[in-house]
Amino acid sequence: MEANMPKRKEAAKSLRIKVISMGNAEVGKSCIIKRYCEKRFVSKYLATIGIDYGVTKVQVRDREIKVNIFDMAGHPFFYEVRNEFYKDTQGVILVYDVGQKDSFDALDAWLAEMKQDLGPHGNMENIVFVVCANKIDCTKHRCVDESEGRLWAESKGFLYFETSAQTGEGINEMFQTFYVSIVDLCENGGKRPITNSSASFTKEQADTIRRIRNSKDSWDMLAVKPGASRDEVNKAYRKLAVLLHPDKCVAPGSEDAFKAVVNARTALLKNIK
Ligand code: GTP
Ligand code: MG
């Protein structure tokens, strides 16, 4: 009996987890995993066919974690293969290419695919998601900036990292934080711990920043009709200023949105008698 004790204690501290990668084809999912596990980068594109599977061991605090990684193919053609693999997942690496806006816009569809395959009883709340804004080494082609990606991720309570599988930037930090969060989740009875970032801004603030980014002109930005009066412009401005003032709002992109609103108001007032 005594002789069994240390073994049982060890077993209690070890943990087996399943993580999957998700995101459009060619965004760099396999390269991110390769960079972390094999410390190398392959520049030739070798599309994943269906699923690649690997096992790795990591240490988080006093626990040994056995990680089963399922690296999914991003091509729509492989949907039938992918849909078998969503269940019983503790962590998702959700990847987009910062030079491909489509791959960023597709993130919602990836979540929807997973949700659909988990079925009505599947719970996305007990899964840790990390968003990788990948290929940050390709600075010339970048079209999704950090605040846009971070806002999307953090407003959903997801982790966010800027990564380059090519240079290795952000990769180790991303995996470390990801695994620690999964262990925290397992130790927290399967509930995602509240992160500082997810609790620090409201959905209204996030939605407003996104709306301002996508607005077509100054009227649109202040959400007033073209030809609105000075009073209406000022009223709309004050409302947005209260919502987005840098002293009050820490959402990613809030500072730029606030500046844009100030400029829009100035531009409109110049032309209203
Ligand atoms: P699928 O398996 O088809 O879903 O694609 P994937 O997301 O696994 O992409 P993969 O990792 O195979 O990478 C696609 C291409 O992007 C390859 O040519 C890689 O060399 C390149 N690539 C991946 N990550 C980076 C990166 O961080 N920087 C640069 N410059 N290229 C990258
Ligand atoms: Mg791949």
Written overview of the protein:
By secondary structure, the protein is an alpha/beta fold. Helix content is 44%, strand content 17%. It has a six-stranded mixed sheet, sandwiched between helices. α9 packs across α12 and α11 runs antiparallel to α12. The radius of gyration is 22 Å and the shape is elongated. 35% of the residues are buried. The mean pLDDT is 91. Bound molecules: guanosine-5'-triphosphate and magnesium ion. Magnesium ion binds next to α2.
Rg from C-alpha positions? Answer: 22 Å
Ranges where pLDDT stays below 50 over 5 or more residues in a row are none
Largest sheet: 6 strands, mixed
Regarding quaternary structure, what we see is single chain
How many beta strands in the DSSP annotation?
6
Instruction: Give the overall shape.
Output: elongated
| Class by SSE composition | alpha/beta
Mean pLDDT: 91
Strand percent estimate: 15-25%
Give the N-to-C terminal Cα separation: 90 Å
Cofactors, ions, other ligands: guanosine-5'-triphosphate, magnesium ion
**Portion of residues in helices?**
40-55%
Q: Given the structure, what is the number of helices? A: 12
Order of helices and strands: HEHEEHEHHEHEHHHHHH
Q: What topology, given as strand order, has the largest sheet?
A: 2-3-1-4-5-6
Subunit structure: Interacts directly with MAPK1 (wild-type and kinase-deficient forms). Interacts directly (in GTP-bound form) with MAP2K1 (wild-type and kinase-deficient forms).
Pfam family, one: Ras
Family: Belongs to the small GTPase superfamily. Rab family.
Subcellular location: Cytoplasmic vesicle, Phagosome membrane
